[in-house]
Structure formats: structure tokens, C-alpha cells
Design a protein that fits this description.
253 residues, mainly alpha, 14 helices, 78% helix, 0% strand
Length: 253
């Protein structure tokens, strides 16, 4: 089906370029309408950006259209398959429509055919497998990815996320600790470890992990806010355990 759309798309673009731009206003208007309706001037990434915006605005129909245009422009763009799968996944889950969920699964797998280490697609497919009652397959998907990429930290982060969502916090923590050892520059892994530590009441580890995350990537305002809250929590804890009288210590200890 994508090949058919691509042929139609290319033929329309060639037809437009073959006619050339007419100098009269009617011809110019017609040219512009054809140009933007077919997407000849917009790249696959451009259509994907428009589709993401539509999806975030709750316009599923518009998002599907834009992502299909993206595939017409480049049938090998893995992000386009992921994005379209994400919309179908959302629609299928919301409406309880197995046909949409099956199509989403097909699109996610096509994405991974083109980009074997696509992080968001692994996440999306794992969630879909859980949503459709195939929890073991979800863990198998991520475990196999981790085995295939023993030096990558991202599969461990996604495994940790799945284990945490299933209530196994200790195993999730082990995977996150492994992830930061594999790649100390993975800000996302440090943030995930910090959030999990905070959830478990280990505020000192959370504080250190949030700091490391910001050292790797300072442009994380939400992480900065969490760090400030944890710092405040540590300060209050220290204040509650002081032995010396405030009037003597002057607040130094």
C-alpha cells in the first residue's frame, strides 16, 4: 500500500514540476494548492513534526493524515511508522478496538525492522503487549534487546520502567544501577534512578542521582525542581536530628 501511495505522490510532484509555474494569478493559486495538498515541498520529518503537534492537540484524524504523508515522502523513516503506530495504539486502547491495536503492533514492528534500537518504539510495543494481556512477551522483547545490545544502557532503562510499573521496584533498581554503570552520561538513567530512590525513601541517593543527571544535561527544568525539593527534604531531616542547641551552634551544625 505504501508503494502505491509513493507512486501516486511522485507522479503528482512530477506533473507539477513538468507544467512549471504559470505567471497568471489563477495558475499560481492552483500551483500552490497542489503543492501543499500533496506535500511535495515538505519532508518526512516536517510532516512528522506537524503530526506530533496534531496528536498533542488531540486531533487523531489530523495526526494520522500527517504521518501517512510522512510515509509517502519517505517509506523508510522509522519515526513515521512509530508515530502512526502510537496514534493507532491510542485509538485502539481508548475504544477497545482490536483492529487498531493489531495495526499498531504491525507498525511498531515495522519501525523496529528499520531501526533496531528505536527506544520509543520498544517502549510503545512493550506497553501494547501489556495492554493486550501479553506481559511475558513484553519482558521478552526488552530482555532480548538488552541481550543483543550488552553495551547499551537504554534497554536497561526501559526494562526498569516496565518492572517498576509491574511493582517490582528492586529489580527495576538493579537495571537502573546497571544502566548508569554502562553509560555515566545517560541523563535519563540518572533521573529514573533518582525518581525510584525518592519513591523508596532513599533521598540521599535521589539527591546524588538528580545532581548527576543535571551535570550531564543542565537543560532539565523539571529535574531541577525535583532536586530542589529533595534538597529541602534533606535540610529538614538534618534539622530534626541536630543535637546542639541553635543558640550555641549558630546554625552551623
Amino acid at each position: 500500500m505504501n508503494r502505491r501511495w509513493n507512486r501516486q505522490f511522485e507522479n503528482i510532484c512530477k506533473a507539477i514540476s513538468g507544467h512549471g509555474m504559470q505567471r497568471n494569478s489563477r495558475g499560481l493559486v492552483l500551483f500552490i494548492i497542489l503543492l501543499f495538498s500533496t506535500g511535495c515541498s515538505i519532508t518526512s520529518d516536517g510532516w512528522n513534526a506537524q503530526g506530533v503537534q496534531a496528536f498533542q492537540n488531540g486531533d487523531h484524524r489530523g495526526a494520522v493524515q500527517k504521518f501517512q504523508y510522512a510515509l509517502n515522502a519517505d517509506s523508510t523513516n522509522s519515526d513515521s511508522f512509530y508515530n502512526l503506530g502510537r496514534v493507532y495504539h491510542e485509538i485502539g486502547k481508548k475504544n477497545g478496538d482490536d483492529a487498531f491495536l493489531l495495526e499498531a503492533e504491525t507498525l511498531y514492528n515495522r519501525c523496529l525492522d528499520l531501526s533496531a534500537d528505536h527506544v520509543d518504539c520498544h517502549r510503545g510495543l512493550a506497553v501494547l503487549l501489556v495492554d493486550t494481556g501479553r506481559k511475558q512477551e513484553a519482558f521478552a522483547l526488552l530482555n532480548n534487546w538488552a541481550k543483543d545490545r550488552p553495551s547499551m544502557s537504554q534497554p536497561r532503562v526501559e526494562l526498569a520502567r516496565l518492572y517498576e510499573e509491574q511493582g517490582d521496584l528492586q529489580t527495576a533498581r538493579l537495571h537502573l544501577e546497571s544502566a548508569v554503570k554502562l553509560n555515566a552520561n545517560n541523563a535519563r538513567a540518572h533521573t529514573a534512578l533518582a525518581a525510584l530512590s525518592e519513591r523508596q525513601g532513599d533521598v540521599r541517593t535521589a539527591y546524588a542521582a538528580y545532581q548527576k543527571s543535571l551535570m550531564v544535561n543542565p537543560n532539565q527544568p523539571n529535574v531541577g525542581k525535583r532536586l530542589a525539593l529533595v534538597r529541602q527534604s534533606l535540610g529538614e531531616s538534618a534539622g530534626n536530628t541536630r543535637i546542639a542547641d541553635e543558640s550555641v551552634s549558630r546554625g552551623r551544625y
